[in-house]
Amino acid sequence: MPVTPHRPGPNEVREEFALMTGNASNHRTVAVIGGGQAGLSISYWLQQRGIDHLVFEKRTAAHTWETQRWDTFCLVTPNWQCQLPGHPYEGADPDGFMKKDEIVRYLKGFVAKVNPPIREGVSVTRVAPRAEGGFDVATSEGDFTADEIVVASGGYHTPIIPRMAEKLPKSVTQIHSEQYRNPAQLPEGAVMVVGSGQSGAQIAEDLHLAGRKVHLAIGDAPRCARFYRGRDVVAWLADMGYYEMGVDEHPLREGVRDNTNHYVTGRDGGRDIDLRKFASEGMELFGALEDFEHGELRFRDNLARSLDAADQTYNGINAAIDKHIAEAGVEAPPPSRYEPVWTPGEPRLSLDLAASGIASVIWCIGFRPDFRWLDVSVFNGAGHPKHRRGVTAHPGVSFIGLPWLHTWGSGRFGAVGRDAEHVVAKIAERLGSERAPLAMAG
Q: CA torsion 164→168→174→176, rounded to 10°?
């Protein structure tokens, strides 16, 4: 009578592979690098599928929201968009915007629900493919091996501070946006904020509302309305399907990943950020900061163009909402168009540092990615990973939590869980097909 050959189960297969690699105690099927909301979402879905894994986090789970945000920080998207897997927002204010302490509590609740297998305080120093398959994972706690790698460390690693900062006098305090907490931490005197993306615009507002003299060197960030025609703009865009649009459907295709986010705020229940209004109230606006020479800050002649471009985007988004309302036959208050409340005069291309009383500079010009520890050829010339919805061309290497990984919400609480589910499904497919020959061996 023929005997049906024994086909090892998943745990037996993992043990067999671990023994083949000579590292049974430190082998995992999946190594997840990063313990923020992206890595935790991966852990959630891996647990749903019963796939063993280990999360490496160099600090503590989801720490950045507590350690790298200013005191008045709040979400810029409404709370109802917080949809981490198994952990949707369930508070009393779905249309509001969680403040820093609320965000931290929300995330700590997520950590408790996921209860991930995590090594906190452990840095990953190198990941490299093994000749026999899988990956070597070198960490500050020792060496591990894994069949699959999920990079969940985001794309914001190294704060950008230009070399020109070295020219500024030692008497001027310089910090990056990730170090800013509140106006009281800065010395007395005026503050130069460099950059007008979400962080720069909101930090400039925070200082302005505190009564500090602010000089703002703006960039090319667009802006949008907080509320329009009776609703949050985010709600209109959700109805229009914009948050479901994938990179492949976007007119800019992968170029959208290089876009700067619109500046707006959820502070005090949510409102527009209008740099022109700030200027009319005494904030000094300049074009992009280019250099510091002979005691003077030098600026590009682009202030008027940048303000106009930001307003054009603002009005363009509202016009798209107008079209949607008309086509859908939705009842809504009448449309409107933003008209400038302030316009710059003659371009000011330089500013005497000492005469202006500037005592501190806050660099709000973003971060650079740093994936030097990942010794796998999956990067483009700018050092960004090449992938399709987080899955790279190198078998076993995936990314999660990057801006526009798939949709606009990929780098936020709104869609990172859905992206993680997709990545884990692809991992499960690979494990199922690639383990079959190994399971039948011998």
A: -10
